[in-house]
Amino acid sequence: METVLTFARSELRKYYKKTTGADACEIELRIDPSLAEKGDDVKSDDRFRISVLAGKGKIAGINGRSVLLGVYRFFRELGWVFVRPGADGEKGVRKSAEECGVNLAFRPHYRFRTVTIEGANSVEDVIGLIDWSMKNGFNSYFLQFRDSHTFFERWYNHERNEYAAKGNLSFNDSAAFVERIVGEIKKRGMLYHAVGHGWTCECLSFPSKGWNHVKDEEITPDKRKYLAKVGGNRKFYLDTPLYSQLCYSDPKVRELIAEEVVSYIEKHGEIDYLHVWLGDNYNNFCECESCRQKIPTDWYFMILNEIDRRLSALKKDTKIVFLIYFELLWPSQTVALKNPDRFVLMFAPITRTYAHGFLKEGEEVDKELPVPQFELNKIVFPSSTKENLAFLFAHQKTFHGDCFDFDYHLMWEPYKDLGGLRIASVVYGDVRSLESLGMNGLASCQVQKVFMPHGFGMFVMGRTLEDPSLSLEGLREEYFGALYSSHEKRALEILERIEASECCAYLRNEIGQRSDEAAKDFDTLSEYLFASLSDLQEREERESDALVKKSLAYLRFYCELLRRYLKTLAIKARGGDREALSAALKEMHDYLFLNEEKAAPVMDTYEFDLIAEQIVYGEWNIIKCEGI
Q: Distance between CA 544 and CA 83 in Å, rounded?
């Protein structure tokens, strides 16, 4: 706790000096468990009290993390706005000490306010986002897999960018990155979520370093007997250990997984929430006669109960997060979790639509929605929000413990909703509806660099998880006013023009691949963006504020990139030939990666290019099972 208070004091002094110019700060920081109220968990929840008048007073919280959150809230109340990671993303204010007064008692609304690693990242990208996230109300971070190697490898080895020198990132490098990141998480008192997929291969001594392939001949008989029998064969599904299920009716398999999980916890006491998930694919569960006697969730719960039994014997209080996703959406029929307090239910509606939110404004929640009958290895994805929610409600009838939404608003949608305003609205509505759906927050599985040309969606997410009573319009005024200042109206005009186009509907495949009307719209929008470039450049050159100047530069770059993308999409929509389509896509690709240094601080260039290629070449809305 003292480490967190030490960091909180350094942050208080830093921003107090930036605000007042004074080195001395007469604000005391204190952990005060007596602030906790009925129902508060002093480890997992947050509550703070700010009592500062004329630059003197105290900020107290029920734990160190709450104190730090209180420090950031103090400065936000004074007028600071944090629009993107890094010092160039901070909109400060100047006040005298006498003007520094805040009196506020606050408890963030949701317990789970979590960012999850995805995409292509440097270690600095991740640390920068962790730092920014707490300033905007988040309280936890989730590192997927044991070393998150695949997310670092994409960046350091410059996957998809042939113009950059290729790196050679080792697994040891990634492990060192994780150690450094965990240090940053703990320095802030954030809750640390870890792992997820991988237990089903690690327990057989196959590393879970990503979606790597293993040749069938590399599987020895002593390992093969534990693999799921699918189509009469026991092998890795699609030759990928991380995708694969095991023969869960075999007591030895359940024992091996439990041993692996418990051993990992004994070595990693820093983990607050350990995610224990099964294989990362679907329609590949074991078809042997023994496994057919129960549905997958029954076998899963038997494994979880064994993990809890062993942890309880060791007096370990680590929380275990279990996943309802793919086949595990169907609730257990014959097995219950014996110690619900150990577990947290994670609802992962990976196949849902983001064209709209979970609920419409004022819509009543129907918790008696039917769930389709389970058919082994013949599941069909639910796509509507109601179909997805039916599974959640079915689980909640038998599991009454903690629960949160694991969602993908900012994973693929930023590359479909190109203006970024529509998805921010969906985020806002979904977060506000979580409580009525029986969920205590959100873990956002998302690209980390989601600030091109702005980060309004993530800003809305953090702030609304903290306080769902905030208005979307108020958040919009606060964010874009800080981001663009006097240029706010013009910048929003451009973003709203992008939103008004056919882009989002086309990229979501809502109007079909062939559309002359959409092609014309893409041409018109491209011309509009081209006509806006000189105005944006003039505004950028005149602007003296560093944050606003950089924001205008990002918007101008984005307009240039979209012009090239729109050219590609127009060719596709008209039914152009493959050669013309490839040439146009290459032009966009080259512009993106030859200028990657300009975009990299705020944009995941790897994901933008990957998804653009999938869409242009017709792989519409395919679920790439690459970490859920």
A: 18
CA atoms within 13 A on the CB side of 414: 28
Residues 6+ apart with CB under 8 A from 363: none
- Which carries the bigger pLDDT value, residue 360 or residue 82? 82
Distances (CA, A) of 183 to 4, 64, 224, 331: 11, 15, 39, 37
How much is the pTM? 0.97
At 619 the pLDDT is 53
Task: Note whether 31 and 90 are within 8 A (CB).
Answer: no
Question: What is the tens place of the pLDDT at every residue in 264-314?
Answer: 999 999 999 999 999 999 999 999 999 999 999 999 999 999 999 999 999
Of 70, 82, 88, 199, the residue nearest 139 (C-alpha): 70
Cβ(627)–Cβ(197) under 8 Å?
Answer: yes
- Residue 374 in 3-state DSSP? coil
Radius of gyration of the chain (CA): 25
Tokens 């921003």 label which residue?
15
Q: Which residue has the tokens 């110019």?
A: 21
Tokens read off for 603:
């944009």
| pLDDT tens, residue by residue, 206-260 | 998 878 899 999 999 999 999 999 999 999 999 999 999 999 999 999 999 999 9
Structure tokens at 441: 């927050």
Question: Alpha-carbon distance 39 to 47, whole Å?
Answer: 12
- Write down how long the chain is: 628
Distance from C-alpha of 142 to C-alpha of 185, rounded to nearest angstrom: 10
Please write the tens of the pLDDT for every residue from 539-585.
Answer: 999 999 999 999 999 999 999 999 999 999 999 999 999 999 999 99
d(CA 129, CA 442) in angstroms, rounded, equals 17
Cα 268 to Cα 260: distance, rounded to the nearest angstrom: 12
AA letter at 220: T
Query: Alpha helix (H) ranges present in 270-407?
Result: 296-313, 385-396
CA angle 457, 320, 198 (to 5 degrees): 80
CA distance 431 to 425: 10
Under the banding of pLDDT at 50, 70 and 90, the label for residue 88 is: very high
Helix (H, G, I), strand (E, B) or coil at 31: strand
What is the C-alpha separation between 245 and 626, in angstroms, rounded? 16
> How many C-beta atoms surround the C-beta of residue 84 within 10 A?
25
Is the torsion defined by CA of 461, 465, 466, 467 positive or negative?
A: positive
Provide the strand spans (E) within 252-302.
273-276
Rounding to the nearest 10 degrees, give the CA dihedral for residues 533, 526, 577, 583: 10
Long-range contacts: 475-481, Cβ < 8 Å, 24+? 475/428, 478/81, 479/81, 479/83, 479/454, 480/454, 480/456, 481/81
Closest C-alpha to 403, from 384, 389, 415, 413: 389
